[in-house]
Amino acid sequence: MLLKSVFQNKIFVNFIFYFCLVFSFFGFLFSFYANEEKINIPLFNGDNADIRLNIKTYGDTDVFINGLKARKTPNFPYNPYDFYESDNVPVYNIAFSNTPEKIIISAGGNLYYFTEKEISSFKKDEKERYIIPDYVKYDKNSKYITDKGILKKIFTFIMSVFYNSKFYIVPLILLLLSGFIYFKNKDKVNIEFKTFKKGAIFWILGFALILRLSDLSSFYWTDELYSVYEAGNVNFPFLKTFSDPGNPPLFFILARIYMLLFGVEPNVTRMLSVIFSVICIYAVYVFVKNNLNEDNKNKIALIVSFLYSINIYSICIAQEFRCYSLCALFSVLSAYLLFEIIKYKKNKDFILYTFLSILMANTHYFQILILISNFIIAMIFLDNKSRIKFFISNFIAFLSFLPYFFMTALNNALLNEEFNKFLMPDINFYIDTFIKFIQGKTAFIIVMVLFFISLVPYLRKKIFEKDDKFLNLFWYSMYTILSLFVLSYLFSLVKPIAKMYYFTVILPFFVILFVLSCFILKKKSIAFLISFFMVCSLFSYSDYIQRDKSRLLDFKRIVKFYYCDSKYHNQKSALIVPHSKEMIKNAFPYYLDDDEIIVIKPPLSVEKLTEKIEKSKAENFYIKIEYNIFKNFFDIMPENYDYEIIRTDKDVIIARIMKRGASL
Questions:
Q1: pLDDT digits (tens, 9 = 90+) for 83-108
Q2: Is the separation of the CB atoms in 612 and 618 below 8 Å?
């Protein structure tokens, strides 16, 4: 009774509420700064955040990081460099006890190359150690070497609350406690959320925009280079947009227009994908809200849009100058129009769907699979007259795809055995994709159990809410995911086309499934338990999609090392790349002019490499090789070559291959 009377006191309730809220806020900040080194949030260039030193010395050279003597890491075959790396964040200072022959520093996406002459001109500290210059930074605006800027720090802090929540147990408990006090005592707590409630979706969109602006400036990876300097190059003929065997031309047409207006810098071009991603979040909100009944539709739509905004894969595809954010947007818009057509059968919706289908068919192969999936649904639920209209709509989209199909796709992608040697997907591939996108095995099991229960009429009536709209949205989301799995598998029997990151085009439907699974049951106590386990799954699962090693080609560092090292050795050198000479020269006009560039299309083989080297007049060859294969690769290379390597990242090796007799 005493406790009950105390909680009826308005002053006491406010004191407890604000106490929990304030200490929760400071608890989050303290936990972040105390555990910043351990937090792992995979951003666009996140794997390259640590400092790595390659030092070629005449004798022993001691290396000091932040004033402390650094330890060498185990050396690798063919490596005349001593290798040091530091996972310490931040790294303020690097110093050397004497003058090495060469120092190559990898800091983030940047590579710094110093010769003995340059090192001897470095400033010295009070202990007569050579100090690395101040301009060696992760980016040009950094305070210290591995600093990634305030925006990146804010991003990492926010995302770590959701993806590394084990560091925030105490502040999370305080935050939940303050929320519990508020909802139990709304009339007593002196705080209003009316402003936030009215414009909640716009707060979410602003929040999503901030998250997507972090880390946009790292240099392009392979496919982005192709978007900028090949298919999307404004200086090439328009028909060049039809040249990519794996991607229809729409995104490249948009890219050309965008780059013509705004330029080709990475942080500028990626803003196009950021814009598509933010619009997609709003489209998800409208789609969900429009297809639920009045009771909880706004709340559920807001939760879905918020979770999609913080989804790590949604952020990753928003930070790439590729078509995936646009495809996710198109997928949601097509679902919205499909639902409108089935419900109202208005001519304007058929016309809009026709226009959208044309865009989808000319953006990505997986968009065509979504159109096929929607076509099957429409043929089941529409009347005969509407079926004819929908068929015509899809047929027009099919006709629009034919120019690209006959010009490029048929010969270069479907009939060319050398193009994109994807592995044939199996059931484990699809389960793994589902688990990653739904963020955890627990959530995956819950969603699958609820789906199969929903298929049994008796159980559906007993267990699920009597809300047809709710179930329709749940079923459609599951159907879209499973149909894309099945269709991609069937097409892969002819030509494998499945990559895990391709399925981000239906990522919104994974998130919709996740949220609806928390609200779909009649019994609120069971629904609460389901929600609890789903949220725990979200907070505990951190097995993010990692880009394929072949997608981690860091051309900026390779070209910089090639440029500096070949000048140092003053011998005819060649750069080996997996793409066209023109693309590389366009990307790096300040480093490459009449240099020899050798193209070896993946997969890399000893036979291809030695054949190209033997035909070349160069003496030195620079190539990037994945760490997991380079040891075995060089063991089977002919004996008339010498090698040396530097390591610029934990998975990135740059090798210098020398014809026997070239200077080491």
A1: 887 766 678 899 998 889 999 998 87
A2: no
513/643: higher pLDDT: 513
- C-alpha triplet 231, 236, 239: angle, nearest 5°: 65
- Which tokens go with 453? 């229960």
Q: Computed from CA positions of residues 402, 354, 226, 261, in that sequence, does the dihedral angle turn out positive or negative?
A: positive
pLDDT given for residue 664 in this prediction: 52
Is 552's pLDDT higher than 50?
no
For residue 361, pLDDT over 70 is answered with yes
- The residue-averaged pLDDT of 428-452 equals 91
Contact indicator for 159, 310 with CB cutoff of 8 Å: yes
Question: Cβ neighbours of residue 247 under 8 Å, at least 6 residues apart?
Answer: 231, 323, 363, 364
**Residue 464 φ/ψ, nearest 5 degrees:** -95, 155
Q: How far apart are CA 465 and CA 625, in angstroms?
A: 55
Mean per-residue pLDDT for 51-70?
87
**Among 106, 95, 102, 103, residue whose Cα is nearest residue 146:** 106
User: What is the mean pLDDT of the segment spanning 464-489?
Assistant: 92
Q: What is the pLDDT of residue 369?
A: 97
What is the CB neighbour count within 10 angstroms for residue 33? Answer: 10
CB contact set of 476 (below 8 Å; sequence gap of 6+): 335, 339, 377, 509
Is there a contact between 209 and 310 (Cβ–Cβ < 8 Å)? no
What whole-number distance in Å separates Cα of residue 449 and Cα of residue 439? Answer: 16
pLDDT tens-digit series, residues 238-276? 999 998 888 999 999 999 999 999 999 999 999 999 999
Q: Rg (Cα) of the chain, in Å, rounded? A: 28
List, as one string, the DSSP characters of 494-537.
Answer: TS----GGGGGGGHHHHHHHHHHHHH-BS-HHHHHHHHHHHHHH
Paired sense of beta strands 620-626 and 573-577, if any: parallel
* 661 Rama class: left (phi>0) / alpha (psi -120 to 50) / beta: left
pLDDT of residue 46 exceeding 60, the answer is no
Phi, psi of 403 (to 5 degrees): -55, -50
Question: What residues form DSSP beta bridges with 96?
Answer: 63, 130
On the CB side of 489, CA atoms within 13 Å amount to 13
Residue 544: pLDDT above 70? no
| CA-based nearest residue to 80, from 606, 610, 655, 626 | 655
Sheet of strand 652-659, all strands in order from the earlier edge strand to the far edge: 596-599, 573-577, 620-626, 652-659, 641-649
**What are the φ and ψ backbone dihedral angles of 590, each rounded to 5 degrees?**
-80, -15
Would you say the C-alpha torsion 450, 455, 457, 458 has a positive or negative sign? Answer: negative
Side by side, which strands form the sheet with 68-69?
68-69, 63-65, 94-96, 130-131
Q: What is the dihedral of CA 86, 88, 92, 98, to 10 degrees?
A: -30
Q: Among candidates 79, 111, 47, 85, which has minimal Cα distance to 559?
A: 111
Q: Which structure tokens are listed for 187?
A: 């009339």
Among residues 160, 140, 145, which one has the least CA distance to residue 39?
Answer: 160
Q: What is the DSSP string of 333-390?
A: HHHHHHHHHHHH--HHHHHHHHHHHHHHHTT-HHHHHHHHHHHHHHHHHS-HHHHHHH
Task: Check whether 661 has a pLDDT greater than 70.
Answer: no
H or E segment to which residue 203 belongs? helix 200-213
Q: Give residues with Cβ within 8 angstroms of 246, minimum separation 6.
A: 365, 413, 419, 420
pLDDT at 372: 97
Average pLDDT of the chain is 87
